[in-house]
Amino acid sequence: MRNVTLILDDGSRFHGKSFGYEKPVAGEVVFNTAMMGYPESLTDPSYAGQLMTLTYPLVGNYGVPAFTMEENGLATFMESDRIYASAIIVSDYSLAYNHWNAKESLADWLKREQVPGITGVDTRELTKVLREHGVMMGKIVFDDEPDNIPEADYNGVNFVDKVSCKEIIRYNEGDGRKKVVLVDCGVKHNIIRCLLRRGVEVIRVPWDYDFNTLEFDGLFLANGPGDPDTCEAAVANIRKFLASPSVRPCMGICMGNQLLSKAAGARIYKLKYGHRSHNQPVRMVGTTRCFITSQNHGYAVDAETLGADWEPLFVNMNDGSNEGIRHKVNPWFSAQFHPEACSGPVDTEFMFDDFVNLLK
């Protein structure tokens, strides 16, 4: 294992060893406190452009499942067609792995997909730095190549455009099925699976496609990476949908919550260090019902700036930030967290049932 150094923008340095693909890389350094789920997290397009730090100390001990695709084009065990995170940073990489579903090691997978991985880093201390300072840009450099310094931009980059599909994709076509347009901002495959299991036809469109020209029964706004303020084309299409005299259901997840909120007039702001974990508690506004949720986002909705016809649906019990909105009259609602939670708790998957039951 070659010696590597993670250099943060504030000058902090963390030394470790390379166990993945050997190339220097730069990106936004974020941390995830989940105890498991690295195959799903690495393939989540919402991590595009980011160096993912895992706070759980032991990583790699259960290997990686086979990267196979179903006939419908969805990954069997992953959340997309490839790894989207720019790198993974861990404390202790397990050289040996054992799991009934494992087909290869995490290291072999990273090398095959040309994604760096570093181990031996004090990830708890790194997380403390990120919590105090906020997320920062960082660079992974090889100590024996001191002049090979990578550069990367994150702020202002439209990562949604980089990860969204480029043409319309249809799933579960059939006469008599309810049609759901899914705006692909970087959709996790389990969102599509959750819709297909409920018997609807899914029409997956690029993030900036004017879906209002299609015939459909409901609108679904998917998750995705980066800054929602770079997605004004999607917001314009959502506003057109909301203004249509034909009122149809709409549900959003993560980036979808932020885009729906922007269409409703709200302001978006960047969190100091984001929510990336399996254990974020949220409360349904107006009730005492609380749920444990899986989350992965760096931006949040300023609920105080919502239009008069809208109201918060969920609130984060840790920091009070918005976790979803709903219209006071029409069947439009969203969640900042992931009800499909792959990986993570499935306490809130009922939201898919609520959405599908609204389709007429």
Automatic annotation (TrEMBL):
It catalyses: hydrogencarbonate + L-glutamine + 2 ATP + H2O = carbamoyl phosphate + L-glutamate + 2 ADP + phosphate + 2 H(+); L-glutamine + H2O = L-glutamate + NH4(+). Belongs to the CarA family. Transmembrane segments: none annotated. SMART domains: CPSase_sm_chain. One of its GO terms (molecular function) is ATP binding. Its EC number is 6.3.5.5. Keywords: Amino-acid biosynthesis, Arginine biosynthesis, ATP-binding, Glutamine amidotransferase, Ligase, Nucleotide-binding, Pyrimidine biosynthesis. CDD domains: GATase1_CPSase (cd01744). The active site is at residues 254, 338, 340. Composed of two chains; the small (or glutamine) chain promotes the hydrolysis of glutamine to ammonia, which is used by the large (or ammonia) chain to synthesize carbamoyl phosphate. Tetramer of heterodimers (alpha,beta)4. L-glutamine binds at residues 46, 224, 226, 255, 258, 296, 298-299. Small subunit of the glutamine-dependent carbamoyl phosphate synthetase (CPSase). CPSase catalyzes the formation of carbamoyl phosphate from the ammonia moiety of glutamine, carbonate, and phosphate donated by ATP, constituting the first step of 2 biosynthetic pathways, one leading to arginine and/or urea and the other to pyrimidine nucleotides. The small subunit (glutamine amidotransferase) binds and cleaves glutamine to supply the large subunit with the substrate ammonia. InterPro entries: Anth_synth/Amidotransfase, CarbamoylP_synth_ssu, CarbamoylP_synth_ssu_N, CarbP_synth_ssu_N_sf, Class_I_gatase-like, CPSase_GATase1, GATASE. GO terms for biological process: 'de novo' pyrimidine nucleobase biosynthetic process; 'de novo' UMP biosynthetic process; glutamine metabolic process; L-arginine biosynthetic process. Residues 2-141 form the Carbamoyl-phosphate synthase small subunit N-terminal domain. Residues 1-178 are annotated as: CPSase. SUPFAM superfamilies: Carbamoyl phosphate synthetase, small subunit N-terminal domain, Class I glutamine amidotransferase-like. Pathway: Amino-acid biosynthesis; L-arginine biosynthesis; carbamoyl phosphate from bicarbonate: step 1/1; Pyrimidine metabolism; UMP biosynthesis via de novo pathway; (S)-dihydroorotate from bicarbonate: step 1/3. This is Carbamoyl phosphate synthase small chain.
